[in-house]
Design goal:
5-stranded antiparallel sheet, mainly beta, 8 strands, Immunoglobulin-like
């Protein structure tokens, strides 16, 4: 089985969509990677988002709910099976296209 995909990240966040991208696993388990499965954490479990494997190292998700935080991860698969997941990434769907919300803003500098 392949290793976990690397550098998994969410980009191009809007109020209803986002893009997810990742790098191919460093180890393919001796067989070429044939696709990827994106999973979302919901109802205390990981739920597969795609019905057929994704062949590229990116995907676009639509119909997301504004103001909601989503947690995603991705797994690679090959002839031997599905490998372990990537590190998860959290996407906070926002009002401003291309501007992901930050969970924690840095403190402003003190006034002098």
């Amino acid at each position: 089985m392949p290793g976990p995909p690397g550098n998994f990240r969410g980009t191009d966040v809007t109020n209803t969509s986002c893009s997810l991208s990742w790098n191919a696993p460093q180890y393919d388990g001796g067989s070429p990677v044939t696709g990827y499965n994106v999973e979302m954490y919901k109802w205390s479990q990981w739920i597969r988002m795609n019905s057929t494997p994704i062949t590229a190292c990116f995907t676009d998700l639509t119909d997301l709910v504004k103001g909601t935080k989503y947690e995603f991860r991705v797994c690679a698969q090959n002839a031997a099976g599905v490998g372990p997941p990537s590190k998860s990434t959290t996407v906070h769907v926002t009002d401003v296209p291309g501007c992901p919300a930050l969970d924690h803003l840095p403190s402003p500098p003190p006034f002098t």
